[in-house]
Request: fold
Amino acid sequence: MLLSRPCRHALRFLLGVAALCLLALAQEVFQPQVELTRKEKKVVAWVSGEEGSLFYADYGDLLVGELQALSPERVQVENRAFFRDAGSAVEEGLKVGERVEVAYNPDWEQEGLPYLMRLRRAGEGKGERYLRLILFDPKGVEVRLGEEVEARGPLAVVERGGVEELFLSGGEARYLEEEGRLELRPAPGKVAVAQGQVRVEGQRLRYQNDTGEALLEGPLEVRREGEKPLSGKAGSLRYLLDEDRLWLLGGVELTQGGRTTKAERALLREKEGYAFLYGKVESRDERGVVRGERVRYALKSGEVVVLGGVAGEFRGD
Reply:
């Protein structure tokens, strides 16, 4: 849903009216959503439409140039200064002298400086306008990645302009009626990714539509319910939309039915009922330990089969 700059602040109110009308007529709640398309696959995010949820669109202008100053309060690019706050998205690791792209709101100023919406390294492409879509839901913004992977978190930010990206995190967003602006406060935590019965909780998710890659930052907690519940941890999660592959990376550890299995990385194949573990795999229970470089792990039972580089130590009766 695209809005011209003069009417962008009306979106939240209009959605609320639409939701009430639909609820009264059909006992259903209007659920606004955002859709990103990559090849033949889609990434869709939506809010419940219930009280407390928010859907907001905000335009910005773009400027590409040399980063001349960067502080927690201000940014300067090509001799133009901008003010920033907790809602300003600034790419990590930026240094003075780099070529950057600024997205800013010229209609919101403090001390004569326009508001910085986003700052990142400049890519090859360049959009003419910047669109930021904010989805907030205390019950969790729902995100569907392809056909089998789902994610949920309180706050989603979708960016369009030069690149298309989706960020999912904890935090909140609220519309300040008196000031006529949105207050955005992202925070780490409360983000979950699920594939089948496997649920992974982490800090913050970033999806890049140009690559089809989603990265969930850790530390992660892994769970799978069943007759033998599985629990575990990992450093991060990487999902590749084109290949429909979900990886756990860095210090993977799975515990199930008295067995603890460790590896450098794990490929989850939930539909098949297995995970494939790679890199210095070690699986230990009361009977002993088995090691390998490539291991098939049964998600339902916790049983392991070494597919490459087998070694082990076992206790006698």
Q: What stands out?
A: DSSP finds one helix and 23 strands in the chain. The longest strand covers residues 54-70. Residues 170 and 187 are 5 Å apart (CA to CA). Residues 1-27 have pLDDT under 50 and may be disordered.
